[in-house]
Every structure is written in structure tokens, then in C-alpha cells.
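Notes from hallway chat w/ T.B., transcribed later so I don't forget. T.B. wanted the structure written out for a chain they're using in a teaching module, and asked if we could keep both sequence and C-alpha cells in one place. Agreed to drop them here.
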Amino acid sequence: MNFLYSLLVFLMLLIPTALAQINEFVSIDCGCKSNYSDSKTGLSWVSDATLIRDGSVAEVKTENEISPQYNSYRYFPVGNKKYCYTLNTTERRRYLVRATFFYGDSISGSSYPMFQLYLDTTLWATITINDASRVFIEEMIIWAQSTSLQVCLCCASTGYPFISTLELRPLNLSMYFTSYEESFFLKVAARINFGAQSADPIRYPDDPYDRIWESDLYKRQNYLVGMAPGTENVSTIKNVKADFREFPPVKVMQTAVVGTRGSLSYRLDLEGFPGNARAYAYLAEIEDLGKNETRKFIMKQPAVPGYENVIVNILENAHGSYALYEPSYMNISLDFVLSFSFSKTHDSTRGPLLNAIEISKYVQIMPKSDFRDVSVLNAFCLMASVGDWRYDNGDPCIPAAWDWVNCSSTMPSRITKIALSNKKLNGPIPSEIKQMDQLKELWLDGNFLNGPIPDMSNLMGLKILHLEDNRLNGQLPSYFGELPSLQELYIQNNNFSGEIPPALLTKKLLFHYDGNPGLILPRRQKNKLAFVLATSIGAFSIIILILLIGCFWLLWTRQRKPEKSDNQGKSNSLRTMSKASIHTMVGSTSLVIDEGLDVAYCITLSEIEEATGGFSKKIGEGSYGPVYYGKMKDGKEIAVKVSADLSSHGVQQFINEVTLLSRIHHKSLVPFIGYCQEECNKILVYEYVHNGTLRDHIHDSDKKRTLNWLSRLLIAEDAAKGLTYLHNGCNPPVIHRDVKTSNILLDSNMRAKVSDFGLSKQADNSLTHISSIARGTVGYVDPEYYAIQQLTDKSDVYSFGVVLLELISGKKPISVEDYGVDWNIVHWARSLISEGDITSLVDPCLVGTFKIESLWRIAEIAILSVQIHGVSRPKMQEVELAIHDAINIEMGSKDKIDHFSSSSTNPSDLVRFSSVPFDFISSNFQNNINFPSLR
């Protein structure tokens, strides 16, 4: 009876809270035609039809029973534009923001979508649909810093950006507090209900805050594996006191798992990691222990310094049974795969218990564009009555700039160009324009602007100003002549009056002012005009006379000069021209090779033709052009790459490769012998590598039988050494940009050498990335590089990760036949490895020829290397070290070989990986912020 009374009181207290919460919920069904109430949850869903102007609706068909909000979704055109929803918030309050994506059997496109999701200007997630039947959920916990936030979709790599639902849930004032919420969001990585009685998630109304607690019985990709033997489910129907701090729902706390054999362990993939996390365990003693029974345990994994011996006693910590205890880490560095385990102490009679866990990753908040610039843009939008450009939403610069503005790359972004020609703007130019001190170009021509020009004297970087074809009036400001960067000023066809400031009539400024009847030249300028005209005519006449005399003199001297017919003289002249040609050509493309540089040997065309037998033996075809076999007079075998491409791209590629190869030398790079540029030919000469490409050996059914696992590891190590040298041994560093198996050559001893540097880029040590149009080979191209056009050394790491997966599987990077709907080796391999099914990944030719620990070592580093975000990938020297570890495992070596004896890399700077499957390295948080460790 007492229990029922307590339960009734609890429910009476809970009902007002729940009602208050539900009234503040925002639930948007993206694509539905009208508002409705969900019969299962009682939540009210609204259509997004009045919330966004763009996009189309796709109907979803599926054989499975789904919630009504997944019957359709809204999708958007592919391109550089972003599409944003605005959600109203209360400043300084915490919210849970949730977006869901259910693709199903839709008609919007055939390719599975991959695109980016932003929260304001912060990258929230890259949405990668690889299972049409699954609802993909992204959740972020935020502390609102303004009265609204925006959720934006953009930058599709494949398919269309789309969204099914968007939800906003206010939280209790005490929930999810951190000391860093002004600088970091919390991205939910896992929220798991252990001991669940069904595979269905728990959410509203069981959780009044509508958090989604996934069941530990729900087996999907990248979910819980590695459950310890003796793990059993326990549950209770008694009330659990859990109404403080994070307020986990009672229904979640009424179930748990217990390690009856003394231990609890699981392995869980954490998407978006390595990174720093806020991790919570939710514990409540829901078994009735005997008088002499105890439950005490410690956490074995992850091993956190200073906490190895911390003993958890739920009864003692929670002050009794059926009460919540929340041990937590406010900052802990976690890997892509979290292996966690609890073990009972020697004096404990019961094994460890776990009700639920919640893990969120710290995501640094990126600053929005400068508010001063944004206020001016908003003012311009209000000046027009027509045009879709007025409805551009989201931040004007990030993640994609509005069509009519250009932005700087600084943080925060500043507006550098406004292009509003012929937009029917009406009214005076906003006076706030003086705030835009980083503005370089302002195009306001062809509108109905009126009034005088406002103060722009603060725009010291302004280069181009277009104000023509408007109704502006008043006098021209004299400060225009004093702006140090101004190069072009257009004011024609307005109503300006008065005297033109003399400083505007100097030669340093391109100034157009006709069509302003009221403008007059300054008096001294009129007097100068006649003098300048007479002087100009006289000077022009003298120049013509000098040119005529010069032409006659040149003709006379050429007729007197004897011609040389000596063949040796021609040969010497040609050879001299060939040696100088590389300098001439480089200069013509605005590149300069230092005179002190050891430029490769210049070989004549006749020598190459003789060595190749007139280009008679073609041995391959690369991105640069065909490759021919040759043999020099001294017996040296050569590979000759020929290009007849006369375009600027072909010349640039030739210059790039000659310049790079003239200064890089490493045993794991194909030796470069020389070059030739004659008769429009651009020829590169390399040392011939006898055993062809790695691609030939992996994908040829006969050849790959001879390529055992150890041979593949040694080849991978050689190639990794070559790439490590390019990234760390060159100054400036070199990014290859086209790493693939066909660009890894094998010599007569089956040692690997990296080749083909035509697409390579030199990186400035002071830069974090290079802005570059994405190039490379399909299947190997870094998706982040493809999406944001920012090249880093991690782009090579991604491509090399694909190479490692090829070495493991013997499969091609792209194949619908091999991978089905995954179509890509990365998606296919990630799915298998996350399930622990590495045997299905292995090339059948390798079965029985390897040690499983060695294979796991390579699988781990390969999956890390192909993470979607470059920041989550290891560096190339870390990949090299992991391969070396795998070789030692395979060879049974106990003493580690000095792997870096011939390298400039300092091994003390490297993070060593564990050899245990899925036990990935810990990574320091990018911003090196000192968080407290345990609440």
C-alpha cells in the first residue's frame, strides 16, 4: 500500500513537468502535407511546408511498419547551395536538437545519399546512407547563445541532401551542464539501455525529455559486440529514484545487465571519434542483496590514469537500493572503438552491474560570420521587393556562401564582395556599409538607389566600386581618391553634381563618370587638358618615327648576317635550348625553379627515340599519358612517359612532376632519370621497374596466388615509407593526391616504389590545408576533400587506407558485383569489421597463410585511415608504424626493429597502436583544452 501511495505521489509530481515539457516540444515532419498528432506518443507534428521555400517531397515505400513521420521526406537539389531550417530558442537554455533521416524505397534518386549536416556554422555530421531500411539519427545537446539556431543541409557527394524530421526538446536547467558549453556542443554518440526487455527504444512518454534510449538487443551496424560470458539481464517493477542530475527515465533504470562470472565487457563503435567525450554510467542496485552480500567492482577498460583502483559500490554511493548513482567523466579521450569492461573486487560476492550509458563528443562551436557584415546584408535584403536571393538563409558564408557574396577564409568570416547588380534595390545605400572594413568589391549598379553616397572612408581594402545606372545624387566624396586600394570607380548615369575631386582624375584610378550632367571638371584640370593633349600628340609622333627607324635598321643588319648551316652548330643550339627549356616553360606559368636546384638530366628526343625503338613497346597508360619501354646505350632500362597534351593543364602537370622529382629522392619512390621537351613533346624518363603495378598483382588471379600475406605487408610498408617521406621528409611537404595500387610499382625483388607525381601538390608548412579542385581516381578520393575542396596530407592517408583494404581483400575499390548496395570497398569493409567478421573480408588466396593478430592490426589501421573526417585519421607515419607492428607479429619477432633508422621521422613523436583488435589509439583533443576528468 505504501508503495502504491508513493507511486501516486510521484506521478502527480511528474505529470505537470511532462505537460510543460510537451508544450515546448518542436516536432517538424519534413515533407508531410498537414499537421497531425502521433497516436502512439501523443506528440504533435507540424509540416515544414511553411518553414522552408526550397526542396521537393519524396514519398517513401517500405514493407516494414514505420512511424507516420517517415512516410515522406524533403530533398534538395545538388549543388553549392545550403538549405536551412530556423528553430526559435530561449537564450541561455539547454536543448536537445535531433535530425532523422529515413531513405526507404524512395523515388528521388538512385544513388545512396552522402551529404553534410550543420548546426549554425558548426559541422554536425556527415550523413552517409548505407542502409535504406534504417533510420539514421543525429542528436546534439546545445546551450542556446541566441534566440534562434539553424540546421542546414548541403554539400552532397552522392545522391541528394534530404531530411525526414527535425526536433527540438528543451531540457531541465540542471541537465548536461559542462564548463565549456559556450565553446562546445555535445554530439550524442551513444545512449544505451542495458538489460532491455525488447529491441524497441525507450523515449517519450517514458522519458519526459524525449531522449532516445536504444536497446542493447537492437543489433545494427556498428553496435554492441564482445559481450562477456556470464552476462545476464535483470529487471524490477519497483520504482527507482532517479529524479536528479540527468534524470534518466525510470523504465531504463528498472533493467540492467549483471556479470555473473565476475566481469562485464562490451565493444562499441563511436562514430566521429577519436575525440574527447563526456561519458556517463547510470547505476542502480535493483537486486535485493542478502545481509552478507556485496557488489563492488572497478573499471578495467578504458584505463584512465588515477582511476584504476576506484571501487564502485552502488549501495553505498547511491545511499541505498533502487536509487540512482551516476559516475561520470566530464572529459575522457576515447577511440573510434570503445572497449569497456568492469570486474568485481576480490571481496565482492556479486558481479558488476550496469543499467545504462551515455556518451557525447565535444564538438567545438565554429564562429558565425561577423555580425556587422550580416546586418548590412540584411539591410540590402529589405531594399528589394522581388528576387529569390532575398530568402537566402543560414550564415552568409558557412558552410556555403550565398550566391551574391564572397567571404574571407578567416574566423570569423568577413564579407569581401557584394554582387547585387540589377536586383531592383530601392532606397539609399545603408549607412552601416562603413562597418564592412574587409570589403573589396561592391557591385550595386543597375538598381534604383537614391540619395547621396554614405560614408565609406573606412573601407581601406575596397578595390572595385560599381554605382552606375542608379538615381544617386549629391557631391562625390573626396576620400575616394585617398582610399589606398581603390582601382576602379564607376558612377556613370546618376545625378551627381559639383566639382570632381582632383584625386579621382589621376592615372592610378580607372574612373567612369559620364552621364552625370551636374558634374564639372576642376578649373586647373581644364587648363591642363589642352596642354596634355598637345603634349600627347607630339610624343606619339616621335615614338612612331623612332619605331620606323628601328625597323629599317633591323632589316639592314639581318641581310648582312651570314647563315649557319653547320649541323653540329644546330645540334649544340638545340641542346642548349633543351637545357633552358624547363626554365623558360616554368617561368611562363608563373613557377620558378631555383637556379641552385639539381634539375634532372635533359635528354634529347633523338636519344629517347633510339632507346625506345621509335616508341615501339607500350607497357602502360597513366593519368599523364602512355608509357613505353626503352634501353639506353649504357644498358640502363627506362620507362618513358609521353604526353602530347598542349593545354595549360598538361604543361602544368609536366612542370609539376619535373620540379618535384628533381628534388625528392627515396628508395621507396620510383627513381627519376630525366626529361625532354622538344617538338611539343613533354617526356618524363624513369628507371624501369620490372614487376609492374601492385594492381596487376592483386587483381590478376594467377599473380596474386604468389603474393602471400607477408609479401603484401612488406609492399605496404615500402609504399607507406615513400608517402611518409613525401609528407615529413620534404620541405615543403608533398601531397601525392593520386595514391592507388596502379601507382605503386614492384621491382625485381618485389619491393614497392610509389610513382606518378603529376597531380601532386606542394604544401606550405604554415597552412593546414590547400584549397584545390578535387582530383584523383574514383574509389580512392578522400570524400572530405571532394566535398570541401581542401587538400591535406590526410587525403593521401584515406587513399592509402583503400589500398590496405585492397591488399586484405583482393577486391577492387568500386564494384557493384562484389559489394552490392555498398558499391564501395570502404562501406563494405567497415560493415564487416564492425561486426567482428574479418574472415569474410580476407582474400581467399590468403586463407591459412597469416596470423589473425597481424590481419586485425592492418584492418584496424585501414578503417581508421578511411574515416570520413580527416581529423579522425592517423598520420602517414602512424600508418607505417602499424604496418611494421603487423610484420613483426607475422614474423614472430619479439624485438622491435629500428623502423626509423633511415628516416627523418622521430619515433618518440609517434603514438603507438595496440596490437589487440579494436583497441585503437587515444587521441589528444585538437584544441588541447585542460578539462577536469571526473565529476
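Follow-up for T.B.: The first helix runs from residue 2 to 24. Might be a good example for the class.
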